User: Fold these one by one.
Assistant:
Number 1:
Amino acid sequence: MSVQCQERRQRVKAHHAEEGKGRRGGNAGKETLVPSMSQLPLRAMWEERYGAEEFVFGTDPNDFLRANLSTLGSGNVLCLAEGEGRNAVFLAENGLSVSSVDLTESGVAKTHRLATERGVVVDAVTGDLADFDLGVAKWDAIVSIFAHTPPSIRIDLHRRVVDALAPGGVFLLEAYTPAQVGRGTGGPQVPELTMTAEGLRGELAPLEFLTIQELEREVIEGPGHTGEGAVVQVIARKAE
Ligand SMILES: C[S@@+](CC[C@H](N)C(=O)[O-])C[C@H]1O[C@@H](n2cnc3c(N)ncnc32)[C@H](O)[C@@H]1O
């Protein structure tokens, strides 16, 4: 098989594993390549999706974030794996000083575009959460919306999130749980990329949990999230 053909196959598998495209009906999850793959095919897959004119997850913020805006205060906030910028722009519109990071250049470009259209500023940069420097005691809030990475990245990332929060800082997260796999309404299609309340309780243990719950809700957020979803939601605070 040619190198181009192998790369194409990897990209297609990354696509299926990450978002379940074309895998409605419960046959997702049979291919489990993504967690052990390099970030390269994953990045290429997201660059391809964000290269389209449309916003894959829409331009409105995530529902859980919108409903809990008041818990984040009015200081600085870092949005992880922020994609095309819908959440970062919403937070900037609401007076926070917003930075964001995403794996993709196309996502970051769309973030800047959306911010300009809305008349706000977001310090959006490209970076890999595997080694992105979050700083120490730096952020009044950190937001993680559908930031699904393999456990090899996620566990260390969450340790660094705890360090990076300022005293009293708040971490807000929504992610899909393993029960989402096979639903065909969005989200990763391998359990390894999903999260559970129990797992997050351990990974974020030094924080005080204000909300930590698994539930099913309608996730209608752009063409990428299209129906009933099984999610975990967290709001947690670092001690003063
Ligand atoms: C489902 S999208 C969510 C985007 C955004 N948070 C939202 O809610 O609209 C997942 C995002 O994770 C990003 N991502 C995946 N792995 C990453 C990594 N290792 N470092 C940074 N971003 C990553 C992708 O580029 C993609 O934008």
Number 2:
Amino acid sequence: MKIRLSILISSVLFMGGCATQPKNENINTSENIAGKEVFISKCTMCHSATMPKSDAEKNALIAPAMRGVMKHMRMEFGNDTKAMSSFMKDYIVNPSKEKSLCQKDKIARFGLMPSQKDALTPKELDDVVDYLIGAYN
Ligand code: HEC
């Protein structure tokens, strides 16, 4: 059987060239399981883990969905996950209108996020931020 190596190679190269995903090299791709548990137990009562699918779901939100939040983090910090991480760690325990990167209508609708300082240990804060940056990229 004659293998058409050049076609094989060029199609592999072509597929490689088609990758549209931006490279997030400084992102830890292994899931932070402890952080996921913190997110589910301490954040999802306000921040939905998925985007709302209907108007009813949208109207029922009491905080922006986490994908929307992380999209804004991405818009502000791009792939600078270090800066993103320190912003988030600070905001979660010490939120303010001035710091918020959410659109202003979100604060008008939902109010400011209450500080989670007493809800999280320092390790839980590290883990949840690490998880979110990895999971919503
Ligand atoms: C009692 C409800 C509530 C809980 C619990 C909560 N949040 Fe929020 N969060 C909000 C609201 C409302 C906003 C939007 C207003 C704002 O930005 O302050 C927000 C905004 C944010 C933002 C965007 C900050 C910005 O730039 O405005 C981040 C990041 C965030 N939350 C992370 C978390 C994480 C992580 C947890 C769990 C440890 C959490 N939140 C728990 C209500 C909550």
